[in-house]
Write a structure and sequence with these properties.
- By secondary structure, the protein is of the alpha/beta class.
- It folds into two domains: 164 residues, ATPase, nucleotide binding domain (Nucleotidyltransferase, domain 5), CATH 3.30.420.40; 167 residues, ATPase, nucleotide binding domain (Nucleotidyltransferase, domain 5, 2-Layer Sandwich).
- The protein is 40% helix and 23% strand.
- The protein contains 13 helices and 13 strands.
- The chain is globular, with a radius of gyration of 20 Å.
- The chain starts with a strand and ends in an 8-residue tail after the last strand.
- 46% of the residues are buried.
Length: 355
């Protein structure tokens, strides 16, 4: 079985596509066949950043345009990397995530995508877990458990940093803190798309006022399972930091000091941490975190770039496969739901004429 896993994260830094082949008799045997990232058009990025200002017709138009963009990327991907695709699993662009309301919206028109690509499409993964009292996040724990065995902790540094780990035979997974969303916002104030290798943060100095704000943030006191919404990140983290009127490089330096401290506190001694996501390329951050983990005799590992960059797309392909095979793809002990769930809405390709 070969699926396309498609992910567009909260950092809005691109649409990641991975073609993943799974052995029919053992889904834990898998191979990443090919992968690529497509840059989101600037007009889409602007609209996603302004989503709270759009009315319903404008949002529906955005969904249509975004879905057609995904279809074009899929067609370009298959043309460049010929592969026989059995299904497409697409996360969609998260617009809002409200566990307390048992609802989450990842924008993509699954029916339109199935029709445009003539393939079975799986999307809308999170809502059934949330309907049963779960956080609907993070999803990564199923891939960490089944596809990336051999580590004690799994940290994904995307727009939001999330972690999963097995402790006393129970899987735990939750959103730790905002990550790339904060970094990219303040790098943008210095005219950069992102802080490449952490070079800007390396030039900054720690601001204790900002560090105190982060360390006292009420989100840190919430017990897991827990998850973050993009609007929360903007309103409760980014905007208050911006109002402190601190130099961007100092904000970036202070934030990675806070982030590395917070993550290191989560990790037990004598363990191994696998780090993936765009933030895995933030060399200054990984240096800081490695140093702090070394004091606990723990080790940080960053895999080869293709795994670091496409782990979430691999996850989506796996989650889609499990949905099609009617196997749970959400672990209730990690999300807080009443039971494990088989998440995802399935859209079939158009019927052939004459059938």
């Amino acid at each position: 079985m070969t699926g396309l896993g498609i992910m567009s994260g909260s950092s809005l830094d691109g649409l990641d596509i991975a073609a993943v082949s799974f052995a029919r008799d053992n889904f834990k045997e898998w191979e990443l066949i090919s992968s690529n990232t497509f840059t989101l058009p600037e007009d889409l990025v602007i609209l996603f950043k302004q989503i709270d200002r759009l009315d319903i017709p404008a949002i529906l138009k955005l969904e249509s345009v975004f879905t057609k963009f995904i279809a074009q990327c899929i067609q370009s991907f298959i043309a460049a990397f010929p592969v026989n695709v059995d299904f497409i699993a697409v996360h969609g662009q998260t617009l809002i995530h409200l566990p307390e309301e048992q609802s989450s919206w990842q924008m993509v028109n699954g029916g339109m995508l199935a029709s445009l690509c003539d393939k079975t499409v799986v999307t809308d993964f999170r809502n059934q877990d949330m309907a049963l009292g779960g956080q609907g996040a993070p999803m990564a724990v199923i891939a960490d458990r089944d596809l990336f065995e051999g580590h004690d902790y799994y940290l994904n540094l995307g727009g939001i940093a999330n972690i999963s780990y097995l402790e006393n035979d129970i899987w735990h997974a939750f959103d730790l803190i905002p990550f790339n969303q904060v970094s990219n916002y303040f790098a943008g104030k210095s005219g950069l798309d992102y802080d490449r290798d952490g070079l800007l943060a390396r030039e900054g100095i720690i601001n204790n006022k900002m560090l105190d704000f982060c360390n006292a943030h009420p989100y840190l006191t919430i017990k897991a399972p827990k998850s973050l919404d993009n609007t929360q990140v903007k309103n409760d983290w980014i905007y208050p930091l911006d109002q402190m009127e601190i130099e961007s490089r100092d904000i970036l330096r202070s934030y990675i000091e806070f982030a590395s401290d917070e993550i290191a506190r989560t990790i037990r001694s004598n363990t191994c941490l696998l780090v993936t996501g765009g933030g895995a390329h933030h060399r200054y951050f990984t240096e800081l975190l490695s140093g702090k983990l070394a004091k606990k005799k723990s080790m940080l590992t960053v895999p080869e770039n293709v795994i670091a960059d496409y782990k979430e797309s691999i996850l989506m392909a796996y989650a889609g496969l499990l949905r099609l095979e009617n196997i749970p793809n959400f672990i209730s002990e990690a999300t807080g739901a009443k039971t494990d769930t088989i998440g995802g809405a399935v859209y079939l390709p158009p019927l052939k004429s004459g059938i």
